[in-house]
Fold these 2 entries.
Entry 1:
Amino acid sequence: MNEWDQRYDCEDFVYGTEPNDFLREHADVLPAGGEILCLADGEGRNSVFLAERGFHPTALDYSAVALEKGRRLAEERGVVVERVQADLADYTLDRDRWDGIVSIFCHVPAPIRERIYRQVPEALRPGGVLLLEAYTPKQLEYGTGGPPTTELLAGVEELLRPLQGLELLHARELERPVIEGRLHTGPAHVVQIIARRGQD
Ligand SMILES: C[S@@+](CC[C@H](N)C(=O)[O-])C[C@H]1O[C@@H](n2cnc3c(N)ncnc32)[C@H](O)[C@@H]1O
């Protein structure tokens, strides 16, 4: 069991079963009915929400415990979510594969982050959209959730660097209340990005 398996090894859903607020608000920007890769999807709240909205999501995470909880949540809600157990440290995104890539609180070390996001522009199909929300390094001052170290956190400039070539629809850092399960508990500092691959 890795540290995430241990965190998820409990009865409740540590980030709740409702989707992330930013995703819920902006899901319509994703191509309708499209195939969506949910990076570091955890216990499935976001992929299940997308399936309920008529998308075809694939949930990727390296925690087997999280993916199993996500499987149960999808079953309970009567929707289909594909699942991939993989480590982003060595995962390669297929090219021209996804109508959308959703990355919600995917906090990984900088080399892994850069490696994955560098592949995103070509992994999207023409017209495909990346939607991302994560805590910034400033979140450490808030103490309301997220990793305890800057090593796993990034601001908007750093996140945009590997996303060259995508059209930016939304890119900002802001303070907002994040109350999403018992591990995300209040005012927070986040970065949000929505970026689209052109039609080529
Ligand atoms: C803060 S949780 C967010 C979960 C989910 N996106 C949500 O918003 O409910 C971060 C997730 O990243 C996953 N994760 C961390 N490092 C990973 C890696 N190297 N490869 C794949 N998943 C990873 C963890 O297992 C965990 O589910």
Entry 2:
Amino acid sequence: MEHLDPDRLVLFALSEEAEDAAESGHLARCATCRDELDTLRTVTGLGAETHDLRDLPPPPEQIWQRIEADIAEPVRQQKPSPVRRSRPRWLVPVLAAAAAAIVAVAGTVAVDRFAGRAPAETVTARATLAPLATVPAAAGGTVRVLSDGEMRIGVRNLPLTTGFHEVWLIDPDDLTKMVALGNLPDQGDSVLPVPPGIDMNQYRLVDISDEPHDGDATHSGRSLLRGILTE
Ligand SMILES: [Zn+2]
């Protein structure tokens, strides 16, 4: 029996094209082609899954077996067997992409779990960051200084920048005295070490600035959020 063209099966799995009468007739009779199509639907469906491991389908054992089979394939192909249909070449990149998607989702879940862990350290100071007048009112953040000298910073709705966001500790009694702590990542909370020897009672103003990539290490003058550390 002549099987369906693998490229056609991919299009069916992606819902790009519908089977014609002869093709659906073949699918109804041929378990091989049906299995191939089911696997492809599982693979293409993974891309649409949300980033939550609980929503994933059960571990696709069949997919891993097929990947292993593909790895072993070149050895077997050294003996030509014209009867047997060789594994289609397109299947390898499709399965590799599915494997990468699974790894990426698992990684995201691991990071989420790590970030969700309750810190065991003692909070020695905290601040609520408020937007300056030039910044949308929805922007803001929180800062916690821990007894081990780390500062945990969470920000939300910061205006986009073509440069980067930098964290500063400033002496509110003399705004020319300041220390740069580091850059904020584009998303999520960050942990920055407070340089040893900094008097947090003096440098108690936390400032988030918008810094251009101009090679100038001093404050740009464009503050976005500010808050005072209190115990
Ligand atoms: Zn078939």
